[in-house]
């Protein structure tokens, strides 16, 4: 390539000569090139759509001058002009038709002249930076043909694969910039000459500042802008040499003379739990943090630059190998480091079980976090179909733990020799994980079909338990039960005072099996004591050799903790609540819900209300049943009961058994979901003396609700269908909400509500549809002062039923209500809202309501302000006591806030 960088236009002008050899056994009639630089062109490219899925809208609303694209000016094959075209749905891939078929072993020369407009780096981390350029996937690269073309679009997951290639690049720029690259670089005339053999990925850093440090290791030159913190260059070099020797002992020599590790790429693949805190809060030593950070980046570059696997379809081996080496390196050099670092020694923290976790214990912990919620995916799932959490973390951990599993089952030498043979035989060749399978199975007589089958190809969970221990003379008969649908080797231990006295592997336990072991010097038997394999639930892996009244004693723990296999744990923590009538509620919550999810949970939270001088609180009990291969993801069976005050000196209590069905999403990358809930809510209310409305003091309502949600950062849709059945009324309602951001980043928000009574024998408006403030007779909404008609708490609004903000003469409907709420963005979070509604009451004409005003939408559905302007009341801004007309939305429900901030990751 001859490359000219125009820094004024952020433009690369490229003349590229490609010698393409047909290494396949097929004659080729066409050739494909990856043109990933063109993925930044518009919102309809695969990259543009992918970023929207990830709740990233920076490219969607970017100015054309900030975007990137590729423009081909001329393309010839063997100096003859040929036709080419972009793929219809993949504008970052071009197809070149050949005038005659290219036979196996034959080659041709492809000459291309093209321009690449460099995008801003904020979209993917690659492009124009504040001080220069960070370039990756910037040139045309031929696709690989192996029994078909391996085509992949840019999806911001850095997984482009190409054959090992020889490069010769001359780069010229019109300004003085420091150049760093993974290729060998020489200053030549008025530019740079970059060369390299058998490379697969070319990275260029051009910067007005010299930010890279060169480390001359025992094997090659390492350039990195990950500057060591608090340690000198000699120590840093020693650490890098130690890391290299460690990697080489598992793989072999690195074939290149130079390696580049850059901060931008490393930050896309960090060590989670290590560098998510700012430097001044870091609980780890500078040496440990820098050593592990560089080791992970070095391992990733070492593997990906030499083992050429399809990282979109066959990523588990490279990800697993990297995680395996991280585990082994930490075990070797940092066995004493805790997951929380120095924080684990702080008073108030050191008593928790999670403070005792070693750094490597995070891998099975995170795996269990994912599997307990049935959010894990098979390791053969395409990388672009993985959820972001699985792609970035959980799948890598499961793959690494799987290789650790093989090490425990087969022995360290078998696994290590398999890595070495695979690396030496397949280095710099296009390969796949089947080649690794052939190598490792050739080194053992043990059956590994379970690993290369169910473990990799499904999300089945390993879960064994010890059902019974029986003493037979000088032996123990131990009954092991398989609780799930995968059959895998299990390790059985005899333990005394947390010291292993006995260990043996057992296989083929597909349902239940009794094994006999010698009675040794141990008082407990356990499965998977060393956590050698990832397991769905390891709490029931223990049994005492001698029978006791309780197999495990009960233990009280503060707040939450990880589960302790030695105890039945109960957790307690402070409980705070507030409403206007009870004041501040102070109490203690007792529950059995640890950090990792469990199926059966309960909570009881009595509180003392400081204003009403009464005992309030709630109790909940729930069992969640998960389904692995069904359209239903889980069913929750439970009940909820509470009591509090809804008005001064007037209390209420509720009792609600329920069943909730959550349906499975098409894939874990789909946001939103569908659910169906059925519950019977019984309410007992105190009423003020002399109140004639006795029908509302004790009542029961059967509620059926279907909810659908498809949120998206650009366009979101949700609706719910609700039915309430009671002795005196039956009502149906539908609530549809649609939100869209226009091409100019202006938000449009629409809501349609329609509610009808099928029958209504009530005499009050308590169960009627509310235009501006429904009564919430099921007591589900978090009103601070639900009965207030004046004061700040009367101004709280929860958008339901009519969704109005102004208080109009007709506020309720006992026959039907239809309303339309809309708003349009004006500037940033300032919007104009407009609402209309039709209300029908018995013996009255249909009432038409309308209003408009200004909405301050700070955090959607969490913090909003509404300023009425005009309605049926006229110009409200000129009316008396206008501040009392302002309405606000304030949500303090933790799950709502959590779901808002986790968007695009889980």
Written overview of the protein:
There is one protein chain. The protein is of the alpha+beta class and 906 residues long. The strands form nine sheets. It has an 18-stranded mixed beta sheet that branches. An eight-stranded mixed beta sheet has the order 5-4-8-2-1-14-17-16, with no helix packed on it. A hairpin with a 2-residue loop joins strand 43 and strand 44. Helix 5 (316-333) crosses helix 7 (388-410). The two termini are 41 Å apart. 30% of the residues are buried. The mean pLDDT is 93.
Helix/strand layout:
Elements: E1 2-6, E2 11-21, E3 28-34, H1 46-53, E4 69-77, E5 80-81, E6 84-86, E7 93-102, E8 107-117, E9 127-128, E10 132-136, E11 141-142, E12 144-145, E13 149-150, E14 165-173, E15 178-181, E16 184-188, E17 191-199, E18 203-207, E19 213-216, E20 221-224, H2 233-250, E21 258-261, H3 263-267, H4 286-304, H5 316-333, H6 362-372, H7 388-410, H8 412-426, H9 433-441, H10 449-457, E22 464-472, E23 475-482, E24 490-496, E25 499-506, E26 512-518, E27 524-527, E28 542-544, E29 554-558, E30 568-579, E31 583-591, E32 600-609, E33 614-626, E34 632-647, E35 650-663, E36 673-685, E37 698-710, E38 715-725, E39 729-741, E40 747-760, E41 769-770, E42 812-813, E43 816-827, E44 830-840, E45 847-859, E46 863-871, E47 874-875, E48 887-890, H11 894-901
Parallel strand pairs: 1-14, 20-21, 29-30
Antiparallel strand pairs: 1-2, 2-8, 3-7, 3-11, 4-5, 4-8, 6-7, 9-10, 10-18, 12-13, 14-17, 15-18, 16-17, 19-20, 22-23, 23-26, 24-25, 24-27, 27-28, 30-31, 31-32, 32-33, 33-34, 34-35, 35-36, 36-37, 37-38, 38-39, 39-40, 40-43, 41-42, 43-44, 44-45, 45-46, 46-47, 46-48
């Amino acid at each position: 390539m001859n490359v000219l960088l125009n820094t004024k236009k952020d433009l690369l002008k490229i003349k590229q000569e490609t010698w393409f050899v047909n290494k396949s056994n097929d004659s080729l009639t066409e050739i494909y090139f990856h043109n990933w630089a063109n993925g930044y062109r518009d919102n309809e490219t695969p990259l543009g759509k992918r970023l929207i899925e990830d709740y990233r809208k920076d490219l969607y609303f970017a100015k054309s001058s900030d975007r990137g694209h590729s423009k081909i000016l001329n393309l010839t094959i063997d100096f003859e002009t040929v036709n080419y075209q972009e793929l219809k749905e993949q504008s970052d891939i071009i197809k070149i038709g050949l005038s005659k078929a290219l036979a196996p072993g034959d080659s041709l020369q492809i000459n291309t002249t093209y321009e690449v407009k460099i995008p801003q780096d904020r979209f993917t981390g690659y492009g124009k930076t504040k001080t220069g350029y960070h370039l990756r996937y910037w040139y045309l690269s031929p696709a690989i043909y192996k029994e078909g073309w391996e085509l992949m679009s840019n999806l911001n997951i850095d997984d482009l694969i190409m054959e090992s290639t020889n490069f010769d690049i001359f780069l010229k720029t019109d300004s003085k910039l420091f150049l760093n690259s993974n290729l060998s670089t020489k200053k030549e005339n008025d530019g740079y000459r970059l060369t390299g053999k058998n490379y697969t990925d070319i990275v260029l850093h051009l910067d007005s500042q010299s930010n890279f440090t060169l480390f001359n290791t025992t094997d090659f030159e390492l350039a990195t802008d990950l500057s060591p913190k608090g340690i000198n260059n000699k120590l840093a070099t020693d650490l890098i040499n130690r890391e290299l020797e460690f990697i080489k002992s598992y793989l072999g020599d690195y074939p290149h003379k130079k390696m580049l590790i850059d901060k931008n790429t490393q930050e896309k693949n960090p060590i989670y739990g290590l560098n998510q805190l700012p430097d001044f809060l870091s609980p780890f030593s500078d040496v440990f943090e820098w050593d592990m950070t560089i080791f992970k980046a070095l391992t990733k570059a070492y593997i990906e630059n030499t083992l050429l696997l399809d990282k979109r379809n066959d990523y588990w081996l490279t990800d697993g190998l990297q995680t395996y080496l991280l585990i082994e390196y930490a075990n070797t050099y940092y066995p004493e480091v805790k997951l929380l670092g120095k924080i684990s020694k702080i008073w108030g923290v050191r008593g928790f079980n999670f403070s005792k976790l070693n750094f490597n214990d995070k891998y099975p912990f995170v795996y269990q976090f994912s599997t307990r919620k049935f959010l894990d995916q098979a390791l053969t799932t395409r990388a672009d179909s993985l959820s972001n959490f699985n792609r970035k973390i959980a799948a890598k951990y499961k793959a690494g733990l799987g290789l650790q599993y093989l090490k425990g089952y087969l022995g360290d030498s078998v696994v290590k020799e398999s890595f070495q043979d695979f690396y030496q035989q397949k280095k710099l060749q296009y390969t796949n994980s089947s080649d690794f399978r052939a190598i490792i199975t050739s080194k053992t007589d043990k059956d590994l079909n379970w690993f290369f089958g169910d473990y990799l190809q499904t999300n089945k969970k390993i879960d064994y338990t010890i059902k019974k221990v029986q003493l037979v003379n000088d032996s123990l008969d131990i009954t092991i039960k398989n609780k799930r649908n995968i059959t895998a080797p299990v390790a059985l231990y005899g333990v005394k005072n947390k010291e292993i006295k006995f260990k043996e592997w057992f296989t083929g336990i597909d349902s239940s099996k009794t094994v006999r072991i010698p009675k040794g010097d141990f008082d407990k038997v356990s499965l998977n004591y060393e956590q050698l394999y990832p397991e769905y639930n390891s709490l029931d892996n223990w049994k005492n050799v001698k029978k006791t009244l309780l197999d495990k004693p009960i233990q009280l723990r503060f707040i939450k903790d990880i589960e302790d296999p030695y105890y039945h744990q109960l957790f307690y923590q402070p409980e705070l609540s507030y409403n206007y009538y009870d004041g501040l509620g102070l109490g203690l919550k007792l529950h059995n819900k640890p950090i990792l999810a469990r199926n059966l949970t309960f909570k009881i939270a009595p509180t003392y209300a400081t204003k009403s001088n009464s005992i309030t609180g709630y109790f909940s009990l729930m069992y969640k049943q998960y389904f692995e291969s069904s359209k239903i993801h889980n069913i929750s069976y439970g009940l909820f009961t509470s009591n509090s005050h809804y008005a001064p000196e007037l209390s209420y209590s509720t009792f609600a058994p329920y069943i909730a069905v959550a349906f499975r999403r098409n894939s874990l990358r789909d946001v939103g979901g569908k659910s169906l809930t059925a519950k019977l809510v019984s309410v007992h209310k105190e009423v003020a003396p002399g109140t004639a409305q006795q029908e509302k003091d004790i009542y029961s309502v059967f509620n059926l609700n279907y909810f659908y949600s498809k949120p998206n950062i650009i366009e979101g849709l949700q609706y719910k269908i609700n039915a309430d059945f009671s002795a005196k009324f039956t009502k149906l309602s539908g609530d549809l909400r649609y939100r869209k951001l226009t091409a100019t980043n202006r938000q449009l928000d629409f809501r349609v509500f329609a509610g009808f009574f099928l029958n209504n024998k009530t005499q009050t408006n308590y169960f009627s549809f509310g235009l501006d403030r429904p009564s919430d007779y099921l007591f589900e909404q978090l009103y601070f002062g639900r009965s207030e008609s004046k004061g700040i708490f009367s101004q709280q609004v929860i958008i339901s039923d009519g969704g109005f903000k102004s208080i109009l003469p007709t506020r309720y409907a006992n026959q039907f209500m239809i309303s339309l709420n809309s708003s349009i963005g004006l500037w940033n979070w300032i919007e104009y809202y407009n609402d209309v509604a039709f209300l029908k009451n018995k013996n009255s004409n249909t009432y038409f309501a309308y209003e408009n005003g200004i909405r301050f939408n700070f955090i959607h559905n969490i913090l909003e302000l509404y300023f009425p302007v005009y309605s049926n009341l006229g110009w409200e801004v000129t009316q008396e006591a206008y501040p009392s007309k302002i309405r606000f939305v304030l949500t303090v429900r933790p799950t709502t806030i959590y779901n808002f901030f986790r968007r695009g990751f889980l």
